[in-house]
Amino acid sequence: MSLKEKIDIERLPNHVAIIMDGNGRWAKSKGKERFCGHQEGVESVRVIAETAAELGIQYLTLYAFSKENWNRPTEEVNALMNLLVMTLESELETFKKNGIKLDVIGDIDNLPQESRTALSNVMAATESFNRMTMVLALSYSARWEIVNAIRNIAIDVENQQLNSEMINEKIFTKYLTTCNIPDPELLIRTSGEYRISNFLLWQLAYTELFFSQKYWPEFRREEFYEAVVDFQGRERRFGKTSEQIKGK
Ligand code: IPE
Ligand code: IPE
Ligand code: MG
To answer: Please, which pLDDT band fits residue 137 given cuts at 50, 70 and 90?
Structure first.
């Protein structure tokens, strides 16, 4: 039985989030420049987006650039921003062919103008697609997002749009950049690193975590199927006992 055949289509995670890590180390292992790793990483993005859409996953969130990544050497930051623009322009067909809608989370105002323009063009062109939503996390930091939400809540309390008694988890969630997106059921991190790196700290409260040893450029169909099969073998208890979950 192939890995794909082992997937129960009735029990797919609705939302898969991925920390795409290891582009630089992949390039180094091949004796290439870091940039080649990022280029090859784009190939993985296409394959994984198509694979997820074909399976019937509703949301795929990809951590593409963190707020901390601004601290990388300027040449690498510039190369990544250019790659983003080029990819958005060249992959519009892929979005159309697969019925994928593009959304973005993060501190977008920090991105160069060309990146913002390329993002809004693809978002506008894919707005009506509903097979799958691909959410790109760009200039994203979960702590930034949470502090930003608190600031906006404070402003609304000052303006009397909200009173402090009304603040609960549901209201708080509405102030996050992910307000229209359900929490991920599955988080994948590639490259054998076991950390969250400031990604979706609020949203990952009960997410299943899957760590792959593969570098992102070599994370393709089979690796994605493997993560989904692994996820489906888990018992999600949400604080309850196993007997409660099984209804015994
Ligand atoms: C992930 O690969 C891509 C980004 C963070 C933009 P890295 O560039 O972090 O690759 P490693 O971790 O150095 O191998
Ligand atoms: C996390 O990767 C961010 C992205 C994948 C965009 P990093 O390579 O920046 O993470 P750390 O710094 O090693 O934790
Ligand atoms: Mg890394």
So the answer is: very high
Neighbours of 159 (CB within 10 A): 8
**Ion ligand 3: residue ranges with CB closer than 5 A:** 21
Q: Which of 114, 179, 101, 110 has the alpha carbon at shortest distance from 138?
A: 110
Is the distance from the beta carbon of residue 20 to the nearest atom of ligand 1 less than 6 Å? yes
Return d(Cα 74, Cα 66) in angstroms, integer. 15
Structure-token match 């990388």, residue found? 72
Residue 112 binned pLDDT confidence (cut-offs 50, 70, 90): very high
The set of long-range contacts for 240-244, using a CB threshold of 8 Å and a minimum separation of 24, is none
What is the dotted CATH code of the domain comprising 17-232?
3.40.1180.10
Q: How many CA atoms lie within 13 A of 238 on its CB side?
A: 4
Does residue 24 line the site of ligand 1, with CB under 6 A? yes
Q: What is the maximum span of the chain, computed from C-alpha positions, in angstroms?
A: 60
Phi, psi of 54 (to 5 degrees): -60, -40
DSSP state at residue 184: P
